[in-house]
Amino acid sequence: MTGPAELLRDFVNTYDVEGDADELASPADLSVWLRERGLTGDGDRASDEDLAVAAHLREGLRAALRRNHDGGPYDGPEGLEAALAGLPVRVTLSGGAPTLEPVASGVAGGLARLAAQIPAAHADGTWSRLKVCAESTCQWAFIDSSKNRSRSWCSMRVCGNRTKTRAYRARRQADGTARPS
């Protein structure tokens, strides 16, 4: 089983910003995604409303993960807060440890189980390492495994290189040293 950070990362990455490709394009896609990760049962079917909640949760998480780059205080994005408010959970003491359990069943329960991974990732120390690529055209979620937690891009070879090349060109242009086209 994957850990909470991996599950959250995979959920955020169901939408590829750069390619404008949505893995959760329909309620059926959402049902399959949740079922494959053990968040819902075989007979659970998503509705259009469930899909809308999932999209708000996903994009709210993406916005929250952008803030993990600077380590500053966190004020939840409105979209994430609204999505979380619609996913009722309760605190239980399963096995002596406090955990969040969904109050609802079906797809709403599966989305609540997914949302419960946020405090679980915080508790195991992986939340602050969960980030989205600083490249505005990418926004791919990743887990920062660097020693000092300073990674900014999903890939230094692709997104890091793009960003640094643009900055270099902008500096050269500002200095007047850019080659004429």
**Residue fraction in strands:** 5-15%
Radius of gyration: 19 Å
Spatial order of the strands in the main sheet? 1-2
- Structural class based on helices, strands and sheet pairing: mainly alpha
Number of strands: 6
How would you state the average pLDDT, rounded? 85
Number of discrete domains: 1
- Would you identify the regions where 5 or more consecutive residues have pLDDT less than 50? none
Discrete helix count: 7
Can you give the helix content as a percent range? 40-55%
Biggest sheet layout: 2 strands, antiparallel
Order of helices and strands: HEEHHHEEHHEEH
Q: Which of globular, elongated, flat, extended, rod-shaped describes the shape? A: globular
Shape-level CATH architecture: Orthogonal Bundle
In CATH, what is the class?
A: Mainly Alpha
Q: N- to C-terminal separation?
A: 54 Å
CATH fold title: Jann2411-like fold
Domain Zinc finger CGNR: 129-172
Protein name: Zinc finger CGNR domain-containing protein
InterPro entries: ABATE, ABATE_dom_sf, Znf_CGNR
What does this structure look like?
It comes from Microbispora triticiradicis. InterPro entries: ABATE, ABATE_dom_sf, Znf_CGNR. The model has no long low-confidence stretch (mean pLDDT 85). A hairpin with a 6-residue loop joins strand 3 (89-92) and strand 4 (99-102). Strands 1-2 form a two-stranded antiparallel sheet. It contains seven helices and six strands; from the N terminus they run αββαααββααββα. The protein is mainly α and 181 residues long.
